[in-house]
Structures are given as structure tokens and as C-alpha cells.
Amino acid sequence: MSELPFGHRGRRAKIIATLGPASANSDTIAELFEAGADVFRLNFSHGSHEDHAKSIATIRALEKTVGRPITIMMDLQGPKLRVGVFKEDKVIIQPGKPFRLDLDPTPGDATRVCLPHPEIFSALKPGATLLVDDGHLRLKVKECGKDYAITEAVIAGGISNRKGVNVPDVTLPIPAMTDKDKADLQFGLSQGVDWVALSFVQRPEDVIEVRAAVKGRAGILAKLEKPSALEHLDAIVDASDAIMVARGDLGVEMPLEQVPILQKRIIRSCRKRGKPVVVATQMLDSMIKSPVPTRAEASDVATAIYDSADAVMLSAETAAGLFPVRAVAIMHRIICQVEADEHYLELTEARRMEPEHNSPGAITAAARQVAHTLKAAAIVTFTSSGSTTLRAARERPNAPIMCITPSITAGRRLGLVWGVHSVVGDFIHSVDDIGDVAVKAAVESGIAHDGQALVITAGMPFGKVGSTNMVRVVRVGGETGTQ
What we know:
TIM Barrel, Pyruvate Kinase, Chain: A, domain 1, 23% strand, elongated
């Protein structure tokens, strides 16, 4: 494995930092980037369009200062299911007692409350489970109709105004995007976000609906939060550009002991298809208030890296926590330690995917093997769409991946992808240029030095999507050759 620095990060897995009250200012955003944040997430469940516009402008200004693409992800809120209000702020639901949910907006009490979502009642069946307030109150449906449900508390407890409701047992007939999401999406696209994270995906059709609205202006990341999504896992991965293992709601709607297994299953599906995969939620949760994480949290981050996730995400830790920059720095340190471990390298090699059964897949697999044999400083991919670089990342090579692209859009979008360092510029005018351009970019990025090999992959003719068909080896300060 190359011992040279990968850009200034020194690691392959990426870090996503969520912006919020604790971090959405120019100084902290710059500090987060310097600490190791590769992607900035804007959570549209909170904040105004004006707030998010300021954050986007700050990130783009930082991008110009540092001279490398920085990735922005917008996270749509999605359909939020909540109970109504109570005459008193909070009531206690006793075990075994009936509790009615209905469409009547009258403030509730210990016997009933409004659930203003007729789509839930239309999908419920006796025996279904309703989880309120992240599962702190668990209700089982005993009887239901088109505008009501009689339930019984399986896990009793308190319930207060507008607490969230999860319905794990059924696929709800709700659209992928609410009216708020549609307005937020158009705003985000107008601001030039690179990724759109779609919440509460249930079926591949949800992704297809959003893709029609996005029209190629951003990558689409499907957040897997509901058990119904796992019934269509491979189809959702195929329909998406990336996937997030959103363990918060997934852990509410499914038994906790299943979540680690599902995390590995989702990562395997994404790896097979060459789609980036993010592991998220409560990774360093204690750092919202503490300057150090728990040992269990450090192990949780490490597990995601050992599993070969493309990225790990910080949510409240950087959005609202007391130590946002420190949280990124510690996550960076954990990733670096794991990726330096011999066991990590052995696992990466053992889990290597069978090459795709096409010419680009075979060429890319060959490039990885050549890079490994020559102990190359990097694999250099020339791409306009990003597809050549995604194929290289799918192979999980020992050498870092340098993407050279004329497209700032592709360069920014690839910031989410394992092992990729993007250089943006219209450098190539003929095939004869690629060796010199690759060497210059690798040296300037600190990835390669005199005498080291670079393995180049590209598609000919340039600009044709999916045409990876060439491998070339060059040496810094030496002659070029074609394989």
C-alpha cells in the first residue's frame, strides 16, 4: 500500500459533517474542513432557505480558497407522521388499556388523540404496531377502520404533543416527497447542491419519482430507514446513485439486534453494484456534550470502516454539539488508524468483488492489479461523468484514486466516494496529454514523487460515458507506456 499522503487527508473513507446552530458559520465551516470533513450536510428538517443559502455560499467560497471541490448534500425532511395535541401537555398510557387514534382534531386525553394522517388508517390492519416517540410508547392495533384505530399499549408510557409516529409493519401509501420537500428540492437544486438525500424511502418508485424532478442536476441518495425498504433493497440500490444506512429510524422500527446485520447486508449490496454507501446516526453521539466519545462509539465507527463503507456521518455531533470540530478530528483519527491496520487490508482483499462482466469492468479490475503489482502511488482516472472513477472505487484498490475531470459537477459529487481525490480542470486536448497531466496533478497533490508509478484509466474517446477502455502506466520523471 502506498505510504504517501492521500491529498491532505491520509485516508480513503469520507466524513460527512452536518451543519446547524453550532457550526453554520464561516469560521467553523473552515475548521471542520481542515479537521477532515469532506461533505457538508444541510438538514432541511431545520433552518430556513436563507440559512441554507448562507451555508452554501460559505462552502463555495471556501472551495475557491482551498482550490479543490467540496461536496454539499441536502437532506429532505420527508413525510413526518405525528400525533395531534392533548388538553394537557402530556398523558400516561397505561398497559393493557385501550387507546384510540382518530381524525378528530379535538385535543386528546388519556383515552384518545388525533392522528391526522388518513393514509395510515387506510393501510392499518389488526395486529399492526404503532411506535410513538421513537418507540418509547408501543401500541398494537386491535381494531381499525378508515378513520380510526383502537390500540392497546404493549410498552406503556407517556405521550405528549406532536410526537412522531412510526408504522413499521406496513408500506404506507404516501408520496416520496411532501409539498415542503418539493419546494426545498427546487431551492437546493437552484443553489447547486451535489447530492439530494431522500428520507423514508419505501420502494424503488420513490427514487424514480425524485429522479424525474432532479433531472440529473444532483446525485440521489436513498436513506434506508424503514423495514419495507429492505424488501426491495437491491432494486432501491439499482435505482439510486448512493445509499445511506440511516440507523436511527431503522433501529426504532426494527429490533435493535438486527440493525448491525442489516448494516452489513446493505453495504454488501451497494459494494456489489458499485454504489457509494454511507453509515449514519449516533456514531459519536456522546460528543454532543462530551469532548471524547465512548469506546463503544469509536468501535462503531471502526466497524463501518472495516465493512468498507464509503463514508460515515456526524449529525447532531456537528450540528448542535459542543465540540463539532473535535468530533470530526476524532472521527478522522479513527478512520486513519483502521485503514493502517493490516487486518483492514486483509479484509478489503478478501471481500473484493468479482469484476463487472463488461469491458470497462475488466479494464478497471486490471488497473487495480497492475497498481498492486507495481506498488503504484495512485490510480489516476480521467472522466467527464465520474463513471470511470466509480468503477475504480468499486475495486477498493490499495493505491489512492485521483480523479481528473473537466466537470466541477463530477468532481464535487465524487467527494462522497471512497478513496477519491478530485482535480478539476480542462487539461486534456489529446490522448498524448494524459501522462504529463497525471504526473503533474499527482505531484502537486503530494500523492506521487520521482520514480513512482501511476496507473491511468480512461475512456476513449474522451467524454463518452461508460467507455472505460484504456490502462496506461507512467512513472514520475520517466517514460509512459500503454498496457
